[in-house]
Amino acid sequence: MRPKNLFLCLRFQTISSRLFFEKRFYGIQKSSADEEEFDKLNIMPRMFVKGDREPLAKREALRPQLTPRYNRMPVDQDWNSVWPTAKMFNPSAVPLPVHMGKLKTVSGPKPPPGKFANPELMKVPNFLHLAPPAIKKHCDAIRKFCTPWPQALTDEMCDKYFPLEVITSDYCHASPTIREPKARIITIRIKLSSLDLDYHAKDKLKRILQHRYDPKTDLITIVADKCPLKSQNIDYAKYLLTACFFEAWKTESWESEKEQSDWETFFWEKSPSKASLINYFKKTFQNFNEENFLEKDTVKDYSKSVKNLFDKEENDELLEDYRKNVEKLLFDERL
Amino acid sequence: MIVNTGSVSTFTFVSFSIPKFILSSFDYYYRGPTDILKALASTVSRDFTAAHYKYMDDPFLLPSKSVDVVSFTLFAKSSFRAYALSKESGRKAARYFLNTYPELFFRDDAEPKVPAFCYRELYDENTDNTEDDLRDCIANRDVPNCIIAYNNMEAKDVKINPELKQSLLELVCFYNSKEARDEEFLEEEWFQSKKENIVRRTWQDGEFAEQLFDSLPKKDARAYCTLIQGMGKYFQAGKAFKLYEEMKELNYSPTVAVFNYLIENVVFIQESGELRFEMITKLLRDMSQYNLKPNVNTFNAILFVLSRSTGWNKASNIALNTFAEMKLLNVQPSLASYYYLLLVLSSKNNGSNILYEIVREIEGKSFAIKHPADVNFFEYAMHVCCNFLSDVELGYRIHNLLSTGQNHKFFSTAYSEAVYYRNFFSLLCLSESTDTLMDVYNKYVPNIYIPEAKVMQQILQNIELYDTYHYIPQIFSDITTFQLSFRGDLADTVLTLIAKKKHQDENLQKQFVAIAWSLFNTIVERNSNVKIFPLHVKGEMYSKMILIFLNGKDFEKASAVLKYLVKEKPNDPATFIEGQTLKLLCDASLENKMMNTLKQTIDYASVIGCADVIKHIIENNEKYSLSEEFIEKFIQSSNLEAAKEDSSSSESSEPSETSESPDESSDEEK
Amino acid sequence: MKHVGVDHIDSQYFVLPKSANDALFKLSGWRQNHKQMFEMFEETAIMVRKPFHDLLNYLSRTDFERPVNRYVLYGEFGNGKTFTLNHFLYHCFLNRFLIVHCSSPYEWVFTPQETAQSEWKSGRIDTPVEATIALKTFKDQNAALLSELDLRTSKKYTWSLRETTEEGEPLLNLIDYGLNRMKKASDCYAVLLKEIKHWANEGKIKVSVIGDVVNVLYLGESKVLNPDKTTAEMDNITIARAFTKMLRNDWKNGLVVVAVDSSDSFRDKVGRLTGERFGPDLPKYLLTEKGFQDLDPFIPIKVDKYTENEFENCLDYYIRKNYVNHPAAKTEMGRKEIKFMSAYNPLEVYKFCWLL
Hints:
The complex is a heterotrimer. Chain A contains 14 helices and 6 strands. By secondary structure, chain A is of the alpha+beta class. In chain A, the strands form 2 sheets. Chain A has a 4-stranded antiparallel sheet. In chain A, helix 13 (297-311) runs antiparallel to helix 14. Chain A is elongated and about 110 Å long. Chain B has helices spanning 35-41, 72-76, 79-100, 131-139, 143-155, 162-174, 187-190, 208-215, 221-233, 237-250, 256-269, 273-289, 296-308, 315-328, 335-346, 354-362, 377-389, 392-403, 414-431, 434-444, 453-466, 472-481, 490-499, 506-528, 539-551, 555-568, 579-591, 595-608, 612-619, 621-624, 628-638, 641-648, 654-669; strands at residues 2-5, 12-15. Chain B has 33 helices and 2 strands. Chain B is elongated and about 115 Å long. Chain B has a two-stranded antiparallel ribbon. Chain B is 60% helix and 1% strand. The N and C termini of chain B lie far apart (93 Å). In chain C, strands 4-9-12-3-13 form a 5-stranded parallel sheet, sandwiched between helices. Chain C is of the alpha/beta class. In chain C, helix 13 crosses helix 14. Chain C is built from 14 helices and 13 strands. In chain C, 43% of the residues are buried. At the A-B interface, helix 5, helix 7 and helix 8 of A face helix 1 and helix 22 of B. Chain A: Keywords: Ribonucleoprotein, Ribosomal protein. Chain A: It comes from Dinothrombium tinctorium.
């Protein structure tokens, strides 16, 4: 079918016959003027004839816009009502001059862009719904669902009798499904001190746990997300903890082979520092008695300062301490 | 709870009790699955700075065009309506595609399944239906499917439980054998231009409901009651009463709801108020015979009938008596009762005072909807308050009542909400100071309410009255945003207001110049564009603009207006500006030594036949020390012989005197 | 023991005699920018500072019958470790110590001008040019003392089939041989240090070993390539190995003063080893575990930035020498500003005053 005919098929039913003829005539004229060229499909020829009509979008763009609504917000408004839940950043609703991001231009650095049309601000999660007064209100609202905390159960008792902490999370979205894959991830936490361990086992457990143990808070944190269900993950995490615990108690044959780089702490007794010191005094004094020598306070002080240098972060005070102790040994020490 | 600590040999017992929540004997109630969410939601109050959540919260995508109550055609163009309806039509389109091509939507992540989002099967004659199908359809309120399923089952002689038949009858009677309204799509109803008070017969005679009733082998009291209620709901008064008589003969006892509908239908049986009331009394007596106690809807029905017969002189008395009866029986009135009472009483001029008592009675209460007419109360109360009583105190009390609890939901359409706010603002404009008015204005505009041109006019009048001109820039920017600038004579009002006097505050005056300039530019733009419907602006407006520019000492803009007039509208008598303004313009151009403008002014004056202008210049020539030659040249060039003649004998002529006096005053101002 | 020396006044400038400077630091000792400064001031002036006094104090308490004491100077870049070292070197020179001085070990291990396979032991690498310079430096610094003491070799050394150094030959001959036969210079230097150690143990001489930036010798890998294109270890570079041996305390009648430094070029190298980009300027970190093992127990001596008094003296000296000309710099406010801008760091003060 020729496209011209297709065009005729596309007309509206209500079009009058006069218009119909006009259009057909127009179409023929076009084709006769340019025989070689393929006819254009002209769906709305009236627009084409008038030609100078502005497109709708352009006219709409001239429509005056509202000013951003933060301009009309009173100073003492209830922010909780304006921003009740977590949502994407909306520049027109936030009465704060927020800036974020970085602009790289040829002319040099520019200040960070403002809040309007700023994708950086939209990407990051914001906590505008969690202002302290809002949290207070929420707490007050759900207080009626809570029972009072048992009086006898103090924090210390909690630590003592309920050392294991299981952290789970539930998600509530406005989406068709109530399932959320992230809900399976669980965390268990326990204080290392609440486990019954000797020196070797404690050290070994720390080595097994690696980054899962935080020396600052003394907490063991195990996150499990392997299994599809929350309860399975809790069981799995508990299993891991148990396995680590019993593994820590074992002493393998190769554990005796550890070198200085494997030491959890600096052992001066085994270190070359001790050897070199004894060597020094053997050369200095003919009747050198190693056992008596090691009992001396100066030696003990010295060993302590060397240990500190290795165990702690080196600084001027530690060096000064080291210097004093070395001085005593090198210049004043007699048998 | 007992915890064992320590080694095997020594036990330490520590005991404390952990309260068990659900089983506890505390007076905590059972917690439902959404109770916590509801509690959290209760912390959030209404945010007046935001538009309704169905709109996108973005200045570019929020509606800004008003709902115009005065002319319905413009109401149809409201962007509130357009945006909301287009969103809904999107949803409808999605529903259409789901129903037309269900096979394409095989992926459904929802868990658990949401039946509302699933494809609904349509039955036809060939389907084998069972009782379960029918039960499901009734549960889903799917009337067409119910009817098809029932017919299929009848045709195949499937036995149907009479209880099921009864519930089917209830369903079809409730929905008048038509498809139930989809509660997903409410916007269309919300944006109806005016909700009609449908009090006419819409019952489908001889349709499925009646067929089903007829086919029942044993018609019991419940079946009768159901059908009468259905007919009563859709005002098939005659048949309803006939069935009622049948029922009485069969000695079946009807329910209260049956009587409620019958009382409402009295309107169609009897014409005069007196006869209607007689019939109501008869029905009420029947009721007491059957040992039935009236409820709130019984009284609402009585009041409804009374509100329909306001011509009857006893109507108001009886309405008050009905209310007294309600009190006696300890029946809590709904908002509809008050609405009808107000309707009955406010038809008489002296009766509007009842509103005070009503408001006193219900102040501070939060209502739940009980009757379809409940939603009319606030709109009508504000109407009465504004148009009959004009009492701003009462207006505030009604508005406070609306703000209580969830009462602000008592509007059935956007139209009635707009009417309510229009009346409220009109009331405020008439009796409040501008500061108070603007406090309310800032709270509700533009998200809850966008003022119409008429209300804007009233606000401007208020500003004029209280001499608070500093609000004009804000109001004008709103007028522009809401595209009201050239609606009615709003632009003219604004210009009149700001041209009225010269303002001391330079900053304010500058803003006024900006306002006038933006209006002028809009006019120029609109009129230069052939494609847009042109604006017809009167000469007075141009002269006011010139006056504003001269007051703001912006001579260039003033001359620009003149230039535009000379160039574009030289021969349009409607746009001729006043001679007084031309004189001022001449003075200003002399002061600024703009001889071109002076010439243009005089030329223009000659064209529109304003001879005073030349006279004015000649009289004041000493002030500007113009040479005789100069004036001579001017007069020649402007070819105004008549003016010349006039000027030679001008000392005694009257127009010159009148032209002098305002000129002096303007000099003083300068 | 009693010291010979000029009267050192605290935080004042001490001018090194030109003859001594020529003798001691002709080939090495000062870096290029130091030389430029001295040229500009037309004298070699060193400020007498606390670390120097500390060293003198330790020196006076030293029992030379015990194994040698090691002193490690540390401090931020530009705080004057090299100046203190050289000042102390001059002091040792005056007190008739035999001086073994290494001012730029990084040239030995990172940027040797030539490298050659050792003929004496396969796997070792010789650096003839650097070794020659080291020999020459040793000869220059100890010329007077060597001729006076008349040290002789304790063993017979066979260099090749024909060339040998007999037992009992003067050490000067050994040095001269090394200087003449560049190929053998590295081995000569090693032998020389061995001989010195021997004679010091015998009690014939007192030796002062002085090394700058010695932490580069403990970095493990050098930048010198083996014949098979692998990088050679520090220990395989003959003269570095010999010098490192001198830092151990298995001998007596001597002392070892070294400085550790973290100038950026070495900092990178250290950083790569330890995984830190910018470590502290502290000796344990800079020496690495190996260096610490070698030197422990040592006496760390901190070379700090200027004190208030020292800063004033320094600026007075600069003004006296017309190095600082700007009138504003001579006012109280100007001094405060220089203090602030330089944060009392001697090198920064010098750099900042360059502009004034």
